[in-house]
Structure formats: structure tokens, C-alpha cells
Amino acid sequence: MSDRVPGFSPDAGPQRTCIATRKVHPATALLRCVAERTGEGGGSGSVRVVPDPGRRLPGRGAWITATVSAYETAVQRRAFARALKVPVEADTTPVMEYLRILGENRGSGASMSRQVPHLTTSPVAEKEKETDY
Fold first, then answer.
1. Which of 11, 37, 46, 74 would you call most buried, defined as having the most Cβ atoms within 10 angstroms of its Cβ?
2. Is residue 115 part of a domain?
């Protein structure tokens, strides 16, 4: 029996599963999200889910198709809480804001659900932008 995955090409890079649609895509076509905990000493505090298009933030990542409809499905199914192992009450609005900005930058003429995202930087990460040498 072969260990090869049908349709998988090593040249395509790592494959990830969208938490909303449960479809497998190349990691470059999905948006990575991570949990960010606020509070002192790791104790009780609030948790929010933030986009990580640069794929550099520490922690467990959840991958989602970069569309508003996929986001809504993930929230409805509580997929962020399950994938990131955070409370259901975790604030996911930073992801929604990022997706709306991403959609506005693409233009209003095309449907967001049909486009393959090209994710390079996050509006949230612009403030904390680091230079790689």
C-alpha cells in the first residue's frame, strides 16, 4: 500500500485543511490564525484570534480560506475554538476585519469566495513589522 496522497505534489509545498470548509489546500492559499492571550502571568484573561498572514506568530495555528463566508461558517461551527483549543467566547473580530480589508483591496467587482488569496502582510502586523535580513 502506498503512503502517497492522491493529487499531492511535493512541489506544491505543505498542505493544510481549512477549518471551515474542511478542504485541503496549499498553505499559501489559506490564512493562518493564532490565539493571542491578554492578561498578566498567563492567568485568566481574554483571548482573541488574530490573523497571521506572515505565518510567524508563535503558537498553534488554524488555517482558513480567506473569505467572509468561510469565516462565518467557522464561527457558526465553533471551529476556531476547537482548532486553537480556546474558549468559544474568544474574540474573532480581528480576523473578520482583516478579511473585509482584504476584500476591499481586491475590489468590489469580483466575488471573494471565488478568488485565491495572495496573503503577504496583515494590517494588524504592519504596526509590528520586522525586517528580515
1. 74
2. no
In this predicted model, what pLDDT tens digit does every residue of 62-106 receive, in sequence order? 999 999 999 999 999 999 999 999 999 999 999 999 999 998 887
pTM of the model: 0.70
**Contact yes or no for 94/69 (Cβ under 8 A):** no
Closest CA to 49 of 36, 38, 62: 36
Relative orientation angle of helices 93-106 and 68-76, to the nearest 10 degrees: 160
- Count of domains in the chain? 1
Q: Is 51 helix (H, G, I), strand (E, B) or coil?
A: strand
Number of H helices, E strands in the chain: 3, 5
Closest residue by Cα to residue 22 from 88, 97, 73, 61: 73
